[in-house]
Amino acid sequence: MGSERRQYQRLVKPLPATFRGGSGATECRVADISWGGCFVQTVTPVRNHDRTEVEFLVGDTMLTIQGEIVSVEPGIGFAVKFDALTADHAKALKGVLSAPEA
Questions:
Q1: How far is CA 43 from CA 19, 61, 64, 73, 93, in A?
Q2: Which fold would CATH assign to domain 11-84?
Q3: Where is average pLDDT lowest: 19-23, 35-39, 43-47?
Q4: What is the dihedral of CA 63, 33, 46, 65, to 10 degrees?
Q5: 18 and 25 in contact (C-beta within 8 Å)?
Q6: Distance between CA atoms of residues 11 and 9, nearest Å
Q7: Taking a C-beta distance cutoff of 8 angstroms, is the pair 29, 17 a contact?
């Protein structure tokens, strides 16, 4: 049937979050996350290819990761492809994600 486009295994674990875009900060929920990005659940309209910043708590670390909106499902949410992760991002995400495959 459809082909899998994800490069990394994802973790389905809803996390309260905030995303920032051109219209300011909006509360949302991260529905799933991987080393490459996440899916943000929100009814707030966004545009494909817009830049965004997603902030969420992993363990006891608040992460703020920037990226590009790569897919939009109106009324449901959008997919974000993360920019390059910092060492701090990777350290926090290791607590919930398995190591990326080489």
A1: 12, 26, 21, 9, 26
A2: Thrombin, subunit H (2.40.10)
A3: 19-23
A4: 20
A5: yes
A6: 7
A7: yes
